[in-house]
Amino acid sequence: MSSQSHRSSSTRGFTVLELIASIAVMVIIMTMLAMGLGGVMPASKAKQANVDIVRIQHALERYKRAFGEYPKEFTVTGLSTMEEILFNALAGRLAPKGIFGNFKSLIDRNSLEFANENFPIVGEIAGPIINTIVDPWGNPYRYRYDPDGLVITNWENFNYVLFSKGPDGAYADVTLEGQKNEGAASNQDNIYAQ
Length: 194
Hints:
- The structure is a single chain.
- By secondary structure, this protein is mainly alpha-helical.
- It is built from 3 helices and 7 strands, in the order H-H-H-E-E-E-E-E-E-E.
């Protein structure tokens, strides 16, 4: 009879010591997971930046097929940066030589992030729209293409340069030859189009 009472008392539940040990193990596991995810998040943002850059590259190639050249530097009222020119060109608002119109949008508003919600829709009235395509860290993707040397003198690269400034948001601009400035410390985490 004493063995039966011993059996029933052992099946009642956890002791306080067992509960404390279980909670401690759970806390340790949760801490390890949290620390591990801290290292994964930047990697997933870098992966997203690479995916975005490929999407932008495909849109740039479609633009070149449609207009014969990539979006390039020129004086456009209301647009002050190449990043704004890139956005307006790929959003179907801007043709070469600064001509505004309603062209086919080459980027998907649901697959990329933008600096603000002012995304043009083909069919709206033409005019400059200030916006940029932003990377996972909220910085505009940098874009350079100036084959005529209008802004960057001695530009020798007849291809575009497209990159993300990376997590630190710092960058050194492209060289006069239109190449990435690999010698600059601020470029160590930049993500370039291949």
